[in-house]
Specification:
Blueprint: E1 4-5, H1 20-44, H2 48-51, E2 56-62, E3 67-70, H3 76-82, E4 86-87, E5 92-95, E6 110-119, E7 122-132, E8 161-165, E9 168-169, H4 171-178, H5 184-212, H6 214-239, E10 245-251, E11 261-270, E12 273-277, H7 295-310, E13 324-327, H8 346-360, E14 378-384, E15 390-396, H9 424-430, E16 433-440, E17 456-462, E18 466-471, E19 481-482, E20 492-496, E21 502-504, E22 508-514, E23 519-523, H10 538-547, H11 570-584, E24 591-592, H12 597-602, H13 617-622
Parallel strand pairs: 1-4, 12-13
Antiparallel strand pairs: 2-3, 2-7, 5-6, 5-8, 6-7, 8-9, 10-11, 11-12, 14-15, 14-18, 16-17, 17-23, 18-22, 19-24, 20-21, 20-23
Helix pairs in contact: 1-5, 1-6, 5-6, 7-8
């Protein structure tokens, strides 16, 4: 049953003409309101994941629930479709269960607040924000067990409930929820920060409507949606062909010893629309790497990629959704059946951007990006310190952005543009650890005309006993290069014990005990290279050798010979490049994936057991 909107004023909004200046003012006022939401959140949240790294996402939608400004697209439609209740003035909705909103939020840790904005008895807009909570209960600290078999192991699941009902705060509900978490102070502060951010945006919307008039404000949002529709329609006609193109990529493993898991997508244009068909994607995992992909979220991902590649000046919103048909097989890795575990979904989520790049670039390879840092590696560290106080760290790692048509990939950056790193000083002040090294990994970015960004080496020295957990990927398959560029280097984690022992540890592991003095080398992967590395300016390669981004040996991948003085040996470089071009031949492959899956298994050099071929439920039943 669809939610019932209760309005004391049912007068419909009138469509009125909007002049360009007014539209520009309202558009930028909405942009600024979104920024103000972020600022409010950062200033009032407590957890490092939100306050320091910005792991939260705002949304301002029109009165029909369509996103006007935001990042992940609107989840309000799926919520309204599935919510058996009323939406009234003074209400505020609170939820975290992905299955209750068709995957519009992707795991239990994301707490979402939704505020319907009423003015003079009419619903005029929605403001919303969701943010990652550092702990919501469950079987492990951090509430994201990579070895979970169902969502019931992943902490408290909150269905859509009213945290405020007609202006009355539900304090007992909050007490119940906070009772489930190991870090109630952080969670309560973060929830209040989400609420405050939504209220700030609500005030700004009302101020705009009061200044320009309700009908002008609503008509302006319609104009913004329509403008986006026109722009995207033109981009689709010019960039997407009618002939189907396919691309596939992999999640290396599931943390249970099986993998890689394939994600496949086929794209074509049909009757003026884009079809994105994920037929051929592997079935859901018995572990937690499943990603319950909401179709609107995929539409937004596609739109963001199209806009950023072809026309970055467009303000993306929900206006073009009817132009994109997303088809995801039920029971697949991207549409798992309840109660499949979802806490390790970040790897599939990020890998979709690599797949979009691989799809869109086949018709226009000049716009093609290599594979990049398409995940959000997590480190968890928890225990009791020397003073008997509980500590718990959740941190997102950064890596190499891919080489791109217009330049090198940045070194040590996040998949999400607005994320920032947690300062090392903050970590050392509030947690029993010390950062011994924080540096780029030379040569980890794939060689190319435009180099892939380097990964990062962070060495954590643990000062108190505790447990750590690691969630990462791209340790078995390579981040591929394009248009002649080489793949980036893979991720690796090395645990060095205080007694002198060391071991390579898996990139998806839970409950690894550490003692005081143990050190962890947390190495992330590099981005793939773009273009022919033998066309890269040798002087630039030499400069990067001096800067520590490329080694003397690594410079040979560009066909550049570095002299003992640090300069370029021009004659030797010309000779080497001529030799390497001859060996390669004149044909340059569009994609360089590195070794095949079978070759990787046969020549496994990761220091870890190669993942075994996954067995699906139907195959196990047959056995």
């Amino acid at each position: 049953m669809r939610a019932r909107i209760v309005q004391t004023n049912t007068t419909p909004f009138k469509t009125v003409p909007i002049d360009p200046v007014t539209l520009d003012i309202i558009e930028n006022a909405l942009r600024n309101a979104r920024v103000e939401m972020d600022t409010t959140l950062v200033r009032t949240a407590m957890s490092p994941g939100i306050r320091e790294q910005g792991d939260a996402f705002p949304l301002i939608a029109d009165h029909l629930g369509r996103m006007i400004v935001g990042q992940f697209g609107s989840y309000i439609g799926p919520f309204l479709d599935g919510y058996d209740g009323t939406v009234e003035e003074g209400d505020m909705i609170f939820l975290s269960d992905p299955y209750s909103v068709e995957g519009a939020i992707s795991h239990n840790n994301d707490w979402l607040v939704l505020l319907p904005v009423f003015k003079d008895g009419r619903l005029i807009a929605y403001t919303s924000m969701f943010g990652h909570q550092s702990d919501i209960g469950g079987k492990v600290a951090g509430s994201m067990p990579i070895d979970a078999k169902s969502i019931f192991e992943e902490g408290v699941r909150i269905p859509p409930v009213k945290i405020w009902k007609q202006g009355v705060y539900n304090e007992d509900l909050i007490k119940l929820v906070m009772h489930q978490t190991r870090s109630p102070e952080w969670c309560k502060a973060d929830l209040n920060a989400l609420i405050a951010a939504c209220r700030v945006a609500s005030r700004r919307v009302i101020e705009m409507a009061e200044r320009f008039g309700d009908d002008v404000f609503v008509s302006a949002t319609e104009n913004l949606l329509a403008r986006n529709h026109r722009a995207m329609k033109a981009l689709i006609e010019s960039a997407i062909g009618e002939a189907p193109v396919s691309f596939e990529d992999y999640i290396c493993d599931d943390g249970l010893g099986y993998g890689p898991y394939k994600i496949r997508c086929t794209m074509w244009r049909e009757n003026g629309k884009v079809v994105l068909d994920f037929a051929g994607t592997d079935p859901q995992s018995s572990g937690s790497i499943n990603f319950l992909l909401n179709e609107n979220m995929m539409r937004m991902f596609f739109g963001i990629y199209m806009i950023m590649v072809f026309d970055p000046q467009i303000l993306f919103n929900d206006g073009y959704y009817d132009l994109i048909d997303v088809r995801i097989p039920e029971g697949s890795l991207l549409k798992p059946k309840f109660p499949a575990a979802l806490s390790g979904r970040t790897h599939a989520l990020g890998r979709l951007f690599d797949i979009l790049g691989g799809l869109l670039g086949q018709k226009t390879p000049e716009f093609l990006c290599a594979a990049g840092f398409s995940s959000s590696p997590h480190l968890f560290y928890s225990g009791t310190d020397k003073d008997g106080e509980w500590f718990q760290l959740f941190q997102i790692g950064f890596g190499g952005i891919p080489g791109r048509p217009f330049g090198d990939g940045p070194d040590g950056h996040s998949l999400w543009p607005n994320f920032t790193n947690v300062p090392n000083e903050f970590l050392e002040r509030y947690f029993p650890l010390r950062i011994e090294r924080y540096e780029t990994v030379p040569d980890s970015g794939g060689a190319g005309l435009f180099r892939g960004g380097n990964g990062i080496l962070t060495t954590y020295k643990f000062l108190d006993p505790g447990l750590i957990a690691i969630h990462d990927d791209r340790w078995f398959t390579y981040p591929w290069g394009v248009n002649g560029g080489a793949p980036g280097q893979r991720a690796k984690k090395i645990l060095r014990r205080a007694n002198g022992d060391s071991e390579v540890v898996g990139n998806k592991r839970e409950d690894i005990p550490v003692e005081a003095g143990d050190e962890l080398d947390f190495i992330t992967w590099g981005g793939g290279g773009w273009g022919d590395p033998y066309d890269r300016d040798p002087a630039l390669v030499a400069k990067e050798v001096v800067q520590g981004l490329v080694t003397v040996q690594g410079a040979l991948a560009y066909g550049v010979v570095i002299e003992g003085s640090g300069g370029v040996d021009a004659a030797a470089t010309d000779a080497l490049r001529a030799k390497l071009r001859t060996q390669r031949g004149s044909e340059i492959a569009t994609f360089n994936y590195g070794p095949s899956i079978d070759e990787l298994r046969a020549n496994n050099d990761t220091g870890l057991p190669a993942p075994k071929q996954p067995k699906w439920a139907h195959a196990l039943a047959a056995e």
